[in-house]
Task: inverse folding
């Protein structure tokens, strides 16, 4: 069974940092483009960052310079380092493959207080 398990979220003050992890299991994801998404109530899920198998990254404009996506293919894990967090970053964060979309995990909730 293919699973994605996100972790690392929490409550943080504006300006703080969090590191999210996404552990994948059930198949190898090292050849997939992997992405981090976020969703707030009443809005569609949006892609905030993605990383190719070779490590090329791309970011949503609003998080450029603050978020860093990385991957450890040996661990089948993707990370999202989030610095200088803002209240508008508050959301549930999910990871998934952009290459072969799989069932969404439960996500990890990030709350940034002002």
Result:
């Amino acid at each position: 069974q293919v699973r994605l398990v996100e972790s690392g979220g929490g409550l943080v003050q504006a300006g703080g940092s969090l590191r999210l992890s996404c552990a994948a299991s059930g198949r190898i994801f090292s050849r997939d483009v992997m992405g981090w998404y976020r969703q707030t109530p009443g809005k569609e899920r949006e892609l905030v960052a993605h990383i190719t198998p070779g490590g090329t990254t791309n970011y949503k404009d609003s998080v450029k310079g603050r978020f860093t996506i990385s991957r450890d293919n040996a661990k089948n894990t993707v990370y999202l380092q989030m610095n200088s967090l803002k209240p508008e970053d508050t959301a549930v964060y999910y990871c998934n493959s952009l290459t072969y979309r799989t069932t969404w995990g439960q996500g990890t909730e990030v709350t940034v207080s002002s």
